[in-house]
Specification:
Length: 95
C-alpha cells in the first residue's frame, strides 16, 4: 500500500494541488477575522462559488419561460414562412 500512497503524493505535488491547498490554508491561518464557515472560505479562495438554491430556482424558471417563448416564436415564424410560400407562386404568375 505504501507505493500507492507515494504515487498519489507525487501526483498531488506534481499537479500543484498540494501547494495550492497549502497556500489557501496559510491564508486562512493568517486571516485576522476567521470566517464562520471555513469550507466556504476555502472554496471561494479556490474560485468556487456556492450555489444559491433560490437563485438557481429562479434561473430554472426563467429558462422554462424562455423555452416557451422560443417555441411560440418558432411556431409564429413557421406560420409566417408557410404563408409567404403560399403567396409567392401567385406573385410570380402575375408578372
Amino acid at each position: 500500500m505504501e507505493p500507492e500512497r507515494e504515487k498519489f503524493r507525487a501526483y498531488v505535488e506534481k499537479s500543484g494541488l498540494m501547494s495550492t491547498l497549502t497556500n489557501v490554508l496559510v491564508t486562512l491561518y493568517e486571516e485576522p477575522n476567521k470566517p464562520n464557515d471555513a469550507l466556504s472560505y476555502v472554496m471561494e479562495s479556490l474560485g468556487a462559488q456556492r450555489c444559491d438554491v433560490k437563485k438557481m430556482e429562479l434561473l430554472e424558471e426563467k429558462v422554462k419561460e424562455l423555452e416557451k417563448e422560443n417555441e411560440s416564436l418558432r411556431e409564429q415564424l413557421s406560420k409566417f414562412l408557410r404563408a409567404e410560400q403560399q403567396e409567392a407562386p401567385s406573385d410570380s404568375t402575375a408578372t
